[in-house]
Design brief:
The chain is of the alpha+beta class. It is built from five helices and 19 strands.
Length: 290
């Protein structure tokens, strides 16, 4: 834990490099009933098919661990990954890891499934021809299929970049869970010895969860202007430059912060060891000073 605190304070002098702009493009829509998927999935139909445009366009948002059942599309489907990290697998082929910016073409009639990774949520825009029929739903994806190894590159730099994207996606999910007061997700994310440093003091995991649950501090909305991640062994350091809208003691306050997050990987899963808020002097769009 001392090592985590040391890294936290050490990173106060780092600048935000490898910038990631992580803001939602479309509203997440309504939570879908767990009929053809496992976990939490939100769906929003952006543009239904009509006589002129014979294809529908929707956005789907998955919590970490959520995935659709095996299925196929008579007319095929195209997925545009807009946020996070996910999986895509076709019948008889290896599971693929997909990330923000990837485009996936689901061929007509080919059985496949897709969803989020265990550590990161994923969001995509899906467009499908409607004239050839609706989605054909098949069997559920087993835990063995979901947990099987995915295709990755052996290049060390690429692997480090993949880990950076994974932890950045997890950091983004964390802001959503804090805004939603989802203490169950946060309890699993926070290490038992985690330390939280605020303007008014510092405390441990249980107090932070109680503060969030009770509304003592409601992290209502975090506008993330820039985010970067640095991997050092099994430790990840994430810097966020944000403007935070919070409710403290019943009063809404807005402040610009540099937020330092420290994660360690335990049994293949990222756990938060430290979360520290440093208030900046200028507005949220001001560049952090060295």
């Amino acid at each position: 834990m001392k090592r985590l605190l040391y890294i936290t304070f050490l990173t106060c002098g780092l600048t935000l490099s490898g910038v990631a702009q992580d803001t939602d493009i479309f509203p997440r829509g309504e939570k879908a009933a767990n009929v053809h998927h496992v976990g939490n999935v939100w769906l929003s139909e952006l543009s239904p098919a009509d006589q002129v445009f014979t294809y529908s366009t929707s956005v789907a948002t998955f919590d970490p661990g959520a995935r659709l059942d095996w299925h196929s599309h008579p007319g095929g489907q195209i997925l545009l990954i807009t946020q996070g990290v996910g999986y895509y697998q076709e019948k008889g082929k290896s599971k693929q890891t997909v990330r923000k910016g990837d485009v996936v073409k689901c061929q007509p009639g080919v059985e496949h499934w897709h969803g989020a990774t265990p550590d990161s949520g994923v969001t995509y825009v899906a467009t499908s021809p409607a004239q050839n029929g609706k989605t054909v739903w098949l069997k559920r994806v087993t835990d063995e299929e979901y947990g099987a190894g995915s295709s990755t590159t052996s290049n060390g730099a690429s692997n480090a970049n993949n880990q950076e994207q994974d932890v950045l996606a997890l950091s983004k999910d964390k802001w959503t869970w804090m805004a939603d007061k989802n203490v169950d997700k946060l309890k699993d994310l926070f290490d038992d010895k985690a330390v939280f440093v605020h303007m008014g003091g510092s405390w441990g995991k249980e107090q932070e969860l109680n503060v969030i649950k009770s509304g003592g501090i409601h992290y209502k909305k975090a506008d993330v202007h820039e985010a970067s991640a640095q991997i050092i062994g099994n430790t990840a350091i994430v810097l966020n430059r944000i403007t935070l809208l919070a409710v403290v003691g019943g009063n809404e306050v807005t402040n610009p912060f540099i937020v330092t997050e420290v994660y360690t990987k335990e049994n293949g899963k990222w756990k938060m060891g430290s979360l520290s808020f440093t208030k900046t002097m200028g507005p949220g769009t001001e560049q952090p000073k060295k």
